[in-house]
Design brief:
Layout (H helix, E strand, L loop, with lengths): L2 H13 L5 E6 L6 H10 L5 E5 L1 E2 L2 E2 L14 H12 L3 E8 L6 H6 L6 E6 L2 E3 L2 E3 L6 H14 L3 E2 L7 H11 L28 E2 L5 E3 L17 H12 L7 E5 L5 H8 L4 E6 L2 H13 L6 E5 L11 E7 L23 H8 L1 H4 E11 L18 E3 L8 E2 L6 H8 L25 E3 L11 E2 L4 E7 L11
Parallel strand pairs: 1-2, 2-5, 5-6, 6-9, 12-13, 12-15, 13-14, 15-16
Antiparallel strand pairs: 3-4, 7-8, 10-11, 16-21, 17-19, 18-20
Helix pairs in contact: 5-6, 7-8
Length: 474
């Protein structure tokens, strides 16, 4: 409750003072906010009672759910503080009736304040209240007697109780005195789960387990680049398509090794990982050991601009850092400023002919499809390319032109309404997401000026022979 609200209430109370202020259905204890609010209300001179939605296991929701970490005796110490401040009574309310047991007796260890309870009967279903049909007035009165035996001095009913329930409990407790009974409270931390059946695994059409998801066991060491949504998109494709089985693979910019490890788990013959950060290399090798693929993984810290590969690979995966820099930033090295965040990715794509074996495939993550720089390749005969873009792209617009790579890029994309892929130069039909367009030197010429709004794309470039055709200005 805001201080301004309390000040306004104080003015109202001066004209028509109530007999009692009941601040109810409280949950968290915020120090000093909660205590400051109570203090301001007490300054009005009107008796103040507090009521919390709490049971022996902490904050308790209307369905009996609990949230927050174990609090120990935090609420009990707060009760003692409320008493010293001058609060008139401390109650619990607005929770299931079976969560009241034990709370009054527990609070009595901390305070001599009058204690009480008024729980719910039923719960919300949508916008309607579902009444409890199993606890009538007589049963509610019996429960109220048990709270009285613990020491409750104020007893009532909250949501879902009726005048009949209140009349029955009033009659039941009329000639009783509060007691000191301490009932046993079942622990929610040691629930019996022996009777719960084990869920059966979910499998895909290829009989591969997808639940529980066999995600690699990886940790991210301090300072190592944390996998992003784009990284997980790459991982999902490698996992679902079983990329890498029986292949030699390269993971560029490995970070914690999430992509390279999945290639090894898919059955890759060899996986080599590179990253400019020595800590990332150590992290990758440690994670490889955790997943039982250390015998098939090697890693080295190297600057991609200076790296000279000593072999070719069947599969290359790359999820590289692609962030623009401040154009007014002072250069700190011999390289030009990367205004568009594209230099490293362009350098990698340019080197693909030197990295890929015959019929090899490169899976490259790009953070946006706007202003993708040219993919320059050696012009030798026998090349075919494969362009693969995923549904993270939201909208593209293109105009036919003269460059075959651009024409292919336009053909693989369709406007936002469908999100399926569409291929230029082919019959107008929808293609499943994840399929690719195979390009050959004989395709009709065409080009496009493309723009994209948001999202993530992945390019797959297939190198056959010694020339690769890629994407120009996608």
């Amino acid at each position: 409750m805001r201080q301004e609200t309390i000040e306004l209430l104080s003015r109202v109370f001066e004209e028509e003072p109530p007999d009692l202020i009941l601040l109810e259905t409280l949950t968290l204890l915020r120090d000093p906010t909660t205590f400051k609010t109570v203090e301001l209300l007490l300054e009005t001179g009107i008796p103040v009672w507090l009521s919390f939605r709490r049971c022996r296991h902490g904050v308790c929701g209307v369905y009996g759910q609990h949230w927050g970490p174990p609090e120990g005796d935090l609420f009990g110490r707060a009760a003692r503080r409320f008493e010293s401040m001058g609060v008139g009574a401390l109650l619990i309310n607005c929770m299931p009736i079976d969560h009241v047991a034990g709370m009054i007796a527990w609070l009595r260890d901390f305070t001599e304040l009058p204690l009480g309870a008024y729980p719910n009967l039923g719960h919300m279903v949508g916008t309607q209240w579902h009444f409890d049909e199993h606890i009538g007035p007589a049963e509610y009165a019996q429960q109220a007697l048990s709270w009285r035996e613990e020491g409750a001095q104020v007893i009532g009913g909250c949501c879902g109780t009726t005048p009949q329930h209140i009349a029955a409990l009033a009659q039941a407790v009329a000639d009783t005195r509060p007691g000191r009974k301490r009932p046993m409270v079942p622990s929610i931390w040691h629930e019996d789960t022996e009777s719960a059946p084990e869920p059966s695994p979910w499998r895909d059409r290829g009989d591969r387990t997808v639940y529980p998801l066999p995600f690699p066991e990886v940790t991210v060491d301090p300072g190592v680049f944390v996998p992003t949504e784009g990284s997980f998109l790459c991982w999902k494709y490698l996992f679902s398509e079983r990329i890498g089985e029986g292949k030699t693979c390269l993971d560029v910019g490995c970070g914690c090794g999430i992509l390279g490890i999945q290639l090894a788990l898919n059955g890759a013959r060899q996986v080599h990982a590179i990253d400019i950060d020595r800590n990332a290399i150590a992290n990758t090798l440690a994670n490889a050991f955790r997943n039982g693929v250390a015998d098939r993984m090697t890693a080295v810290d190297v600057d991609l601009y200076e790296w000279e590969p000593d072999q070719r690979y069947d599969i290359c995966v790359a999820s590289l850092y692609q962030m623009p820099v401040d154009p007014f930033e002072e250069p700190t090295g011999h390289r030009p400023l990367d205004y568009w965040g594209r230099n490293l990715l362009d350098h990698f794509i340019t080197n693909l002919p030197r990295l890929l074996a015959d019929h090899g495939t490169a899976y490259v993550m790009q953070l946006s499809a706007r202003n993708v720089a040219s993919a320059r390749k050696a012009r030798l005969p026998g090349a075919r390319g494969r362009l693969q873009l995923f549904s993270r792209l939201r909208r593209f617009r293109g105009q036919p032109g003269t460059d075959p790579a651009r024409q292919a890029a336009v053909g693989c994309l369709r406007p936002a309404a469908g999100r399926e892929e569409r291929h230029a130069g082919l019959p107008a039909r929808d293609h499943p997401i994840g399929r690719s367009s195979r390009l050959s030197p004989g395709r009709p010429a065409g080009s496009s000026s493309l723009t994209a709004e948001g999202g993530v794309a992945m390019i797959a470039l297939l190198c056959s022979g010694t020339r690769t055709r890629g994407v120009d200005s996608v």
